[in-house]
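Batch manifest line 255
LIGAND: phosphoenolpyruvate
JOB: complex structure
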Amino acid sequence: MPTRTPLIAGNWKMYKTVTEAVATATELVGRVADADDVEIMVAPSFTALAAVASALAGSRIALGGQNLHWESEGAFTGEVSAPMLVSAGCSHVIIGHSERRQYFGETDETVNRRIRAALDAGLVPVFCVGETEAQRESGETFSVLDKQVQMGLEGFSLNELTGLVIAYEPVWAIGTGKTANREQAQEVHRFIRELIEESFSIDLANAVRILYGGSVKPDNAADLMAMDDIDGALVGGASLKAETFSQIVNFKRSL
Ligand code: PEP
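JOB STATUS: finished
ARTIFACT:
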């Protein structure tokens, strides 16, 4: 059984001023100091990145962007590029979150371009996929995921994808309090891993971390993470407070 270090990532979405983000990050550093068996990442809004980078300096917590543009610079008002994220202290970037797909016109093609930009800049992409409630109810879950994964990763070589992180986030479970039960999540995570094996290699399939996202909380984290193919979590709401996020980070201690 391959061992994959769990990654617990916090998506702070459009919450927190710079002052609030620094306060949460500073509190988190203290609360997760002993969690040396997991990797941790937080993704504040762009405005708070540089200040949070300073607050996290020397800690075990990595910094991520919530999105990026595929060009490295240019006349793209309101956009932020991969080199800009790197210069602000990021090592990771969330790409293709369902809120971006739903509200900002993100498509599988633009997700693919953003993953390319992230990899070229040395950022770890946290590539989000997931079906809507209607798609699940009409039995399309696996075909939707197949398309999202195949198109998102189209054109990449095996070597480029070492270190890739995928986040399976059923859209119906994000911010709704509904969580996929662990068997539902495991089934999809296994399916995604098999897709990676078919399209790339068994070694990449064994190495790729597949996070679950969708109303992960301190009281369901250990249960989800106990499944073979669930390698961590992408956490929205429960990552906004250092106390609840650190309880998720420390999920092994509650097993
Ligand atoms: C997310 O934003 O990626 C997410 C999973 O949110 P929540 O944990 O609030 O459902």
